Amino acid sequence: MNTRPPRKDDGPRINHDITALEVRVVDADGEMRGVMSVDEAVKLAEDAGLDLVEISPNAEPPVCKVLDYGKYKYEQQKKASEARKKQKTVDVKEVKIRPGIEEHDYQVKLRSARKFLENGDKVKVTMRFRGREMAHQDIGFDLLKRTVEELSDVSKVDLQPKMEGRQIIMVMSSEVSK
């Protein structure tokens, strides 16, 4: 048995890196060859001009397959790339408002938030208080409550409005993820 340095990558073990004493072997044609020692299995793979790859290391005994390791690794990379392509990233968009915001400005911010939510993004609503506005935090909470009601058809609240220093923060996400 040859001693090799520990493996650097976390891929499947191949050929003499397989640590089990006996393995269940599936040949290149997909036929079950039965349980045999690792040395016998590696010899079988080398005779076919291929590699012995540990497919299911947790099985008892581990399942190994005779195949071309380079091609196998390439196929795995393609599958991973395809999966990454299909997944949707969720961005957090921020809408900043003030307690004394005028109605038209409020409607513009609301339309922006609605557009972000319909695109599947999360929306962080931040309300900043300046100076004496801190004495009227209830106005800010009422405005955020109104925002939640007006966007309730396309969103749900992930983080309820809460004070953080001189601002109130609330996070909403779209109800139906695209």
List the helices and strands and how they pair.
Blueprint: E1 22-26, E2 32-37, H1 38-47, E3 51-56, E4 63-67, H2 69-86, E5 92-97, H3 103-118, E6 122-128, H4 137-150, E7 155-164, E8 167-174
Parallel strand pairs: 1-4, 5-6
Antiparallel strand pairs: 1-2, 3-4, 6-8, 7-8
| Helicity, as a percent range | 25-40%
What value does the average pLDDT take? 85
Biggest sheet architecture: 4 strands, mixed
The geometry reads as rod-shaped
Termini distance? 54 Å
Q: What structural class do the secondary elements suggest?
A: alpha/beta
Q: Write the H/E string, N to C.
A: EEHEEHEHEHEE
Strand content: 25-35%
- The order of strands across the largest sheet is 2-1-4-3
Structure explained in plain terms:
The protein is of the alpha/beta class. Helices cover 33% and strands 30% of the residues. Strand 3 (51-56) and strand 4 form a beta hairpin. It is rod-shaped, with a radius of gyration of 30 Å.
Characteristic terms for this protein:
alpha/beta; about 180 residues; single chain; four-stranded mixed beta sheet; rod-shaped; 4 helices; 8 strands
Task: Summarize the entry for a quick read.
With 178 residues, the chain is α/β, with parallel strands linked by helices. It is built from four helices and eight strands; from the N terminus they run E-E-H-E-E-H-E-H-E-H-E-E.
